[in-house]
Design goal:
GO terms for molecular function: ATP binding; ATP hydrolysis activity; branched-chain amino acid transmembrane transporter activity. The chain is α/β, with parallel strands linked by helices. It is built from 10 helices and 10 strands. Bound molecules: adenosine-5'-triphosphate.
Length: 235
């Protein structure tokens, strides 16, 4: 579904990704783990089109999207829930969700139906739908960020650190939600510092170290790998 080949990207003259090659197949959860500053966010942003690339290629369902605008990628079926959630605090919960469908070519009845699906998935968002999103707890804001991304009906969902800053019980809930999205047919490319939990729900995973892919394998294999365990799983 998504193929990233020899991708290079950076900031000014500093290269952050030194030739990344990754594949995400339809129906998979693929997890990318790595330390601080390894290049995870840069890679996800390159896939959603908000980070320029200096070399290599990104294809989505066979189409070359390396130079496509972010809104074109959304229209093709890619959506990102960004690091730090980036919700619009003064806007209501519902308006944040509606913004996810801002580029949608669906009619308003379809947007309403999608809203109801998100509310069924995250009932607390329905309860708070008229409230300013900035008043939600961290976990609720994360649900909102995922819900907003789902409002564009993505076939590929990019999630950057969805468990960041959440209590362990909420981390489990968010990861369960991600697994259920996969079961509903959404393909997921997941970036996480919370490596054990994220690899546990992954079909496959990659380890990124200073802008290069150091390892790849099934989620199970990576969890069992002694070097991965020592560096990322704290065991
Ligand atoms: N806006 C920026 N300007 C300059 N350098 C940047 C910028 N954003 C990231 N970098 C650098 O690019 C490299 C990769 O950063 P990136 O944020 O992609 O890593 P990451 O793996 O997502 O890290 P973290 O887990 O801390 O979010 C790092 O060396 C970082 O310092």
């Amino acid at each position: 579904m998504l193929r990233i080949e020899d991708l290079r990207s950076g900031y000014g003259r500093i290269e952050a990704l030194h030739g990344i090659t990754i594949e995400v197949n339809a129906g998979e959860i693929v997890t990318l783990v790595g330390g601080n500053g390894a290049g995870k966010t840069t890679l996800l942003k390159a896939v959603s089109g908000v980070q320029p690339v200096s070399g290599g290629r990104i294809t989505f369902e066979g189409a070359d999207i390396t130079q496509a605008t972010p809104h074109k990628r959304v229209a093709l079926g890619i959506s990102q829930s960004p690091e730090g959630r980036q919700i619009f605090g003064p806007l209501s919960v519902e308006d944040n969700l509606r913004l996810g469908a801002y580029r949608s070519s669906q009619g308003s009845a379809a947007v309403e139906a999608d809203l109801q699906k998100i509310y069924a998935m995250f009932p607390i968002l329905a309860e708070r739908r008229k409230n300013p999103a900035g008043g939600l707890s961290g976990g609720q804001q994360q649900m909102l960020a995922i819900g907003r991304a789902l409002m564009s009906r993505p076939r590929l969902l990019l999630l950057d650190e969805p468990s960041m800053g959440l209590a362990p019980i909420l981390v489990d809930q968010i990861l369960e939600t991600i697994a259920s999205l996969r079961d509903q047919g959404v393909t997921v490319f997941l970036v996480e510092q919370n490596a054990f939990a994220a690899l546990s729900i992954a079909d496959r995973g990659y380890v990124i170290e200073t802008g290069e892919i150091a390892k790849e394998g099934t989620g199970k294999d990576l969890i069992a790998d002694p070097a991965v365990r020592e560096a990322y799983l704290g065991v």
